[in-house]
Amino acid sequence: MYSLYVLGTAGSGKSLLTHTLKSWMVSKEWYTITVNLDPGAESLPYDPDVDVRLYIDLHEIMDKYQLGPNGALVFASDMIATKVQELQDDIDSYNADYVIFDTPGQMELFAYRPSGQYLASNLVSDGKVLIYLYDAWLCRSPENFLALNLLASSVKLRFRLPFLSVLNKVDLAHDEYKQVMKWTTDTSLLSSAISETLKGEDYSLYFSLFKALERNSFITKLIPVSAATSQGFMDLSGKISMILRGGEESEA
Ligand SMILES: Nc1nc2c(ncn2[C@@H]2O[C@H](COP(=O)(O)OP(=O)(O)O)[C@@H](O)[C@H]2O)c(=O)[nH]1
Ligand SMILES: [Mg+2]
Fold first, then answer.
1. Are 52 and 66 in contact (CB under 8 A)?
2. What angle in degrees, to the nearest 10, is found between the helix axes of 187-197 and 200-215?
3. pLDDT, tens only, 35-87
4. Does pTM surpass 0.85?
5. Rounded to whole angstroms, how far apart are CA atoms 30 and 99?
6. In the 8-state DSSP scheme, what is residue 139?
7. Ligand 1 binding site (Cβ under 6 Å of any ligand atom)
8. Among 4, 83, 169, 235, which is 20 to 30 Å from 203 by CA?
9. Whether 36 contacts 102, CB under 8 Å
10. Interval between CA 78 and ligand 1 midpoint (Å)
11. Which residues pair with 6 in a beta bridge?
12. Which is the closest atom of ligand 1 to the Cα of 102?
């Protein structure tokens, strides 16, 4: 059984990608299940096979501890660490080939509080991949791309799992996403874009950030997809398979 953790900023498309990726994998005859790890999810575009909301009730936490929605979400996210065994038993009962974990809408709840890493390292599986989503619509300016790249790099450092950088929502950014793809394959183009769009102190700060990310190989090629149209899913599932199965059955 292999685990895929889907992370990305709020609204980057984690839940929709979880749904679309499951459908894609199932159509390739991989037995795939979904796990919702967001205790605050109001509605999801898929019906999760395993759901943390079964064990953690956000409204009950709000009432019991007199917390507002944000405080309760933080509390609930920390509580997930105490539910590892229940989640593991639930997941194991399916005996699936792949398990896709949809993480909380607000990424910091999973990425920067200890429970996310605890969960990702303690849930047992034969291999794990972190699928990190960039929102193509937000990436169109060099400043935004660098800011999102910095965030992605911090997630990569914290989880230390095989990492796939995915550019989601390419259907919304039309051909502009191709420019973003070019920045990641030829960083001199990103450097030129920074000098063309920024001046003075902004230029110096963003340029140093760019150099730091580039020097440490944090600017890597993105996999363009659309969770809305399934564009790019053959490439994405091929890359997942390549990491987990060493290239075997990369058509999956
Ligand atoms: N057009 C388009 N919309 C998308 C795509 N992925 C997600 N969305 C939409 O973006 C919004 C946020 O997506 P959601 O999956 O809830 O994001 P999450 O907070 O990361 O789980 C929803 O309205 C989705 O329908 C995509 O690839 N293309
Ligand atoms: Mg979501």
1. no
2. 170
3. 999 999 999 999 999 999 999 999 999 999 999 999 999 999 999 999 999 99
4. yes
5. 10
6. G
7. 8, 10-16, 105, 168-169, 171-172, 226-228
8. 169
9. yes
10. 25
11. 102, 131
12. 21
